[in-house]
Amino acid sequence: MADSAKATELDAVVIGAGFSGLYMLRRLRDELGVSARVFETGDEVGGTWYWNRYPGARCDSEAYMYCFSFDKELLQEWNWSGKYPEQPEILRYLSHVADRFDLRRDIQFNTRVTAARFNEATNRWEIETDQGDHVTAQFLITGIGCLSAGQVPDIKGLDTFEGDWYHTGAWPHDGVDLKGKRVGVIGTGSSGVQSIPVIAEQAAHLTVFQRTPQFTIPARHHTVDRDYLNDVKANYDALWDKARKSAGGFPVDPSELSALEVSDEQRQAIYEAGWAEGGFKFFFGSFKDIAVDRRANDTASEFIRSKIREIVKDPATADKLVPTDHPFSSKRALIDTNYFETYNRDNVELVDIRHSPIQEITPKGIRTEDGEYELDIIVFATGFDAMTGTFFKMDIRGRNDLPLKEKWATGPKTYLGLSSHGFPNMFMITGPGSPSVLSNMPVSIEQHVEFISDFIEYLRERDISVVEADADAEEAWVAHVNEIANMTLYPLANSWYLGANIPGKPRVFMPYPGGVGAYREKCDEVAANDYDGFVLGNASEHFARVPHESARIQIP
Ligand code: NAP
Predict the structure, then answer these.
(1) What is the pTM of this model?
(2) Pseudo-torsion of CA 242, 244, 245, 247, nearest 10°?
(3) Ligand 1, residues 336, 382, 497: which to mutate, most atoms within 8 A of Cβ?
């Protein structure tokens, strides 16, 4: 086996030791036999699950599918405790994976990659870290996650605040003692919706500063027993097969029904059943047209609005919590445990900062147009500079010394979310333009890692040292992603999918919304056609243009 610890000339450098980096290392080192090193900023594996330790942090993919499928023994030996895994349990799982496959010896922790430049004379990447490493590698592979650059809004006066403040995505490892404290949470996305009910139980008083009200569905989390686990494990092959061919990476049967073709009673009964069962089945399993037809969506949106009014006892608070400015699921769909119920507690107050914006943070708390709210702790559940932010924290330069940040100045441009023209031998695991955040991530991560490692094997067998996305194929893919996004209701919301949460970020839909099944078929077809849409070339030769069909795929 390769041991990369001392080498400065590597076959591959992988950035990040979350789900992506761990599996990439396993494939490169143990199956391809190439030398690879992973650089990881944290002092442990885990990626997202290493950093996001806020109260209530858990995954909203069901646990039995939020894991690796590449090793059947691993699948059989790990036992999840409940329907939705909590952050510490996922972290334990990833640590177990690292131990089981002896991955840590090729991971350099506490090390941030600061720069990576493609040297056109050698056809190698030159990589620098904040620990003074200078290494070269034929391949640069990013496993940096889609949501890892935390976003603390630039609010006047934060530096004057006398209390403590935290971002959910960089939560202290020892936790935060909220007992007896007056806590303010800014933000009601996934992190806010998960943490607010738990913080409310611990703090003396909680003030939630809400800019956009959210649609959220009850998770109905529960623990699972041995019979459940045995049943899942006996059926894993079929479940994974179904998930890989599905839209969202879950083994669910999508509904064939239109919300507009059933009676009012039938529609209500279907929504009630989805609400009672909880989780994303409400979305996938109810009607086929919720995500694409505004009138169909209105029926689901209105159902959830009626539930909010039913749950929240104070009508004025309910009014503030009812979303009216975007359709259900056009922002990231949410599931929750006791979110709306939390607003019935005596120690919880909701402040509508859409109508009464935050003016400043004062030494004592937060001042809005309505007055000052005194706080001991501020929690920023304000999200991330998604999909591109972490790339831009590094100085990545391709051919002609072109910075990636410059190439993507008007929005990310990739072929299949895997590769960007002008950046040879660089692969992105779940990069912009791939299903990534619109799917159950491990399913998408495994597919990308396998595509990349198969591609590297193909190149090595043919002694091809350089590969790059073709410019036309990339343009066609970007246009295709936008075309599908425009067939959905996603563009109707101001979401991080479009970069709308970051002031000045170009409004471009970043993930691929055509579904993981269709996307996988496209990638398989590309591979079967000698990596159609990529330009392959030897170091000593000019690039040979590989003919390619249009990058378009038909979405049924
Ligand atoms: P988010 O979805 O981007 O939500 C950020 C929240 O902060 C929004 O309510 C936003 O309001 C608000 N906000 C942002 N800037 C603000 C400002 N300047 N002033 C006032 N409010 C501001 O971030 P997140 O909740 O951390 O979630 C990000 C993504 O991470 C999720 O969508 C999901 O993909 C992932 N995640 C997943 C899980 C899971 O269970 N698997 C858990 C947590 C996170 P607006 O809506 O008005 O912009």
Answers:
(1) 0.95
(2) 100
(3) 382
